[in-house]
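# step 3/5: fold
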Amino acid sequence: MAPTRKNILKLFLLALLAFFSFLMLRIIFLYIPIQNDVAFLQLKQSYIHITEWRIAFFVHVFSSMLALLAGFTQFSKWLVKHRPKLHRAIGYSYVINILVVTGPAGLLMSFYANGGISSRIAFVLLSFLWIGFTAIALYKALKKDFKAHRAFMIRSYALTLSAITLRVWKVLLANYTDIAPMDRYRIIAWLGWTLNLLLAECIIYYYFKKKKTALFA
């Protein structure tokens, strides 16, 4: 791929992330000031009285945006080469956020997911993989195994992006299918992150196996 095409692709991906991040911010602003009966919470009135679930929800909502933005910067070749300390600082904030804040909050919420056991298994598995991949990425970085670190960061961020892709699939299935709402939610619970992870594995395979080189090196 020519450098010009690479730059165009990077700009396109950046613009795409900016657009969806803006949409995410609009959703987050619906909960400011904190209210218990707006947007998604209208569907969770049977759980809203559970203190730990309510706290986990607001923690997850407000901290997930930080993970989205922080994670995106970690794939900047310029930042890695020219501002390595900043790269590490943002990386640590991303990891701490997922391992200590938004990851555990998401895991707790998973046990109360709509759609019954199928949806709950999907979101619990998503949470465990998200936390696990992020922890392994940190471990590999500390061991200076940067090739493995990049691979697990790709997997981690692919699952971070499920916050966006889940909502994209929700809009697509709602507008272009006649699937019943709860069945639609069960499908989205799996579709929202499994395809992300599949794409991440394809990226890892392409760069590490086909080119036999470190990603973004």
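# step 4/5: annotate
The mean pLDDT is 82.
# step 5/5: archive (pending)
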